[in-house]
Write a structure and sequence with these properties.
Keywords: Acyltransferase, Cytoplasm, Iron, Metal-binding, Transferase, tRNA processing. This is tRNA N6-adenosine threonylcarbamoyltransferase. Its EC number is 2.3.1.234. Helix content is about 45%, strand content about 15%. By secondary structure, it is of the alpha/beta class. The protein has two domains: about 130 residues, ATPase, nucleotide binding domain (Nucleotidyltransferase, domain 5); about 170 residues, 2-Layer Sandwich (Nucleotidyltransferase, domain 5), CATH 3.30.420.40. The two termini are about 25 Å apart. The structure holds 5'-O-[(R)-(carboxyoxy)(hydroxy)phosphoryl]adenosine and zinc ion.
Length: about 350
């Protein structure tokens, strides 16, 4: 049995978890700071770092207590190395280094998006080749994995990430931060939808673009305002969501077909979106390709996913050294060769 301590502090959650054999959650502790950032309408990096400093030791201790394990029983420490806010990343990394050094454990730096992808391994076995739709506050990407630890990015956003667009549109509608879940709820309950454009880009492209859609929503609101008319927030939310979902689902479907994958998985905060989940489920049921999306707490930032990806790196022989630094713009690179 292999127990890995995972640590995640890349944004606004301070998280520690222990995962057995890369697949079984033994403990999973997340201290959210959302309430501290809400009044600013977004994450304030300095505030995030201060919270991480206050919480990190407590969160690691709690993960060990809930697991009923001592540090001696652990086999490695995995920590988010990037991308993310550098001051936030560094706190998790320093804690991981100190813990690994004190208990003489291997240290493994993990890419945050690899973590989101491997959140799936905690609930269903990953079968290769697979297609992963990564859709979060910082990323919107289609990634083909021919095997464990191998990533080929076939498409990505050229401007805003989907979650960023959700949060910006939510701000236009005066909804609280983070706006994604609020738009989701409004869209679900809506009895109508404003028609917004679909951005497909060049034929055959798996890239995305959401900034034009965001501008279309802002223009729509301004136009109505100038005419002295009220907007219907539910109709705007529903129209925006329909545009995002239609494009994301269709590009994912086409990619799954072209690459002949055995499995499609979704990952990241926006994968928590009810409209997106049900559209993906319906599409792949029709296609006859197994589709999985993590349960809600494993879609948003957590440390169990970092431990799960860390396990794949550990068995591939990957190790980080004590020179590891926070890498805000870290690229996702493969740790196995085809
Ligand atoms: O993966 P995540 O927790 O953090 C990043 O790594 O970015 O994703 C956060 C993003 C936020 O933009 C949030 O608004 C969005 O995920 N989100 C949602 C939903 N729940 C969270 N977006 C749409 N619908 C949701 N239900
Ligand atoms: Zn994330």
């Amino acid at each position: 049995m292999t127990y890995i301590l995972g640590i995640e502090t890349s944004c606004d959650e301070t998280a520690a978890a222990i995962v057995k054999d890369g697949t079984t959650i033994v403990s999973n502790v997340v201290a959210s700071q959302i309430d501290s950032h809400k009044r600013f309408g977004g994450v304030v990096p300095e505030v995030a770092s201060r919270h991480h400093v206050e919480q990190i030791t407590l969160v690691i201790e709690q993960a060990l207590t809930e697991a009923g394990l001592t540090p001696k029983q652990l086999d490695a420490v995995a920590v988010t190395e990037g991308p993310g806010l550098v001051g936030a990343l560094l706190i998790g990394i320093q804690a991981a280094k100190a813990f690994a050094f004190a208990h003489q454990l291997p240290l493994i730096g993990v890419h945050h998006i690899a973590g989101h992808i491997y959140a799936n391994a905690l609930e269903n076995p990953m079968e290769f080749p697979l297609l992963s739709l990564v859709i979060s506050g910082g990323h919107t990407e289609l990634i083909v994995m021919q095997q464990d630890g191998h990533f080929e990015k076939i498409g990505e956003t050229r401007d805003d990430a989907a979650g960023e667009a959700y949060d910006k549109v939510a701000r236009v509608l005066s909804l609280p931060y983070p706006g994604g879940p609020h738009i989701d709820r409004l869209a679900e309950q809506s009895d109508g939808a404003v028609e917004f454009p679909r951005v497909w880009l060049e034929e055959g492209s798996y890239d995305f673009s959401f900034s034009g859609l965001k501008s279309a929503v802002i223009n729509y609101q301004h136009n109505l305002q100038q005419k002295g008319q009220e907007i219907n927030p539910s109709h705007v939310a529903a129209g925006f969501q329909q545009s995002v979902v239609e494009v994301v689902v269709e590009k994912t479907r086409r990619a799954a077909e072209e690459y002949g994958v055995k499995q499609v998985i979704a990952a990241g905060g926006v994968a928590a979106n009810k409209g997106l989940r049900s559209a993906l489920e319906a599409t792949f049921e029709k296609q006859g390709i197994p589709f999985y999306v993590p349960s809600l707490p494993l879609c948003t930032d957590n440390a169990a996913m970092i431990a799960a990806a860390g396990y794949s790196k550990l068995i591939a022989g990957e190790r980080s050294d004590y020179a590891m630094n926070g890498r805000p713009g870290m690229p996702l690179t493969s740790w196995t060769r085809l």
